[in-house]
Specification:
The chain has 8 helices and 4 strands, in the order βαβαββαααααα. The chain is an alpha+beta fold. The protein folds into 2 domains: 75 residues, Glutaredoxin (3-Layer(aba) Sandwich); 92 residues, Glutathione S-transferase Yfyf (Class Pi), Chain A, domain 2 (Up-down Bundle), CATH 1.20.1050.
Length: 184
């Protein structure tokens, strides 16, 4: 059984969302971050940086939300075996974590980056319901969670991007999303 370690309001919730989407059995271990439980030797043996999330699958341990998502997709999901298919998924997960997130959540770059990032995303989503086409994938978890937090955390309306708003509505209606992201 999978064991997912996370803290309140951490990126563990998006990993939990994907695990729920795949209906995988798992145990969620909520660490008391305020009291430094993530800095104890037991947890540091899982991630020497003391950061969450961490996933344990048998004897295998992995940390960093994007890497965890890709691992789960490859082992339990529908990522496929073609290197090109995997590379496209990796491209989008890395884009979400390395470009979209920092571009939007850094106050210094937000005003400039928001239209540069949301305009092409809106155009893509005006042609298809999900990032990779007609089916929900791990990419939608990685990217969709960041897009969801733009209005939810930053209080930035995305009215100039109607296809992005429609996308958020589709994601927000998913039972696994409601259970893991909206419950927070």
């Amino acid at each position: 059984m999978l064991k997912l370690y996370g803290g309140a309001r951490s990126r563990a919730s998006l990993v939990q969302w994907y695990i729920e989407e795949l209906n995988l059995p798992y145990e969620f271990v909520l660490l008391d971050m305020a009291n430094g439980e993530h800095r104890q030797d037991t947890f540091l043996s899982l991630n020497p940086f003391g950061k969450v999330p961490v996933l344990v699958d048998g004897d295998f341990k992995i940390w960093e939300s994007g890497a965890i998502l890709l691992y789960i997709a490859q082992k339990y999901g529908n990522l496929g075996n073609l290197p090109e298919t995997r590379a496209i998924a990796e491209q989008w997960v890395l884009f979400a974590n390395a470009t979209l997130g920092p571009g939007i959540f850094s106050e210094a770059t937000r005003a400039k980056e928001l239209p540069k990032l949301m305009t092409p995303l809106n155009e893509l989503l005006s042609k298809q319901p999900y990032i990779l086409g007609n089916e929900f994938t791990v990419v939608d978890v990685a990217l969709g969670s960041i897009v969801f937090y733009i209005p939810a955390m930053l209080k930035i309306e995305l009215t100039d991007y109607p296809a992005v708003n429609d996308y958020l509505s589709r994601l927000s209606a998913r039972p696994a999303f409601i259970k893991t992201i909206l419950k927070r």
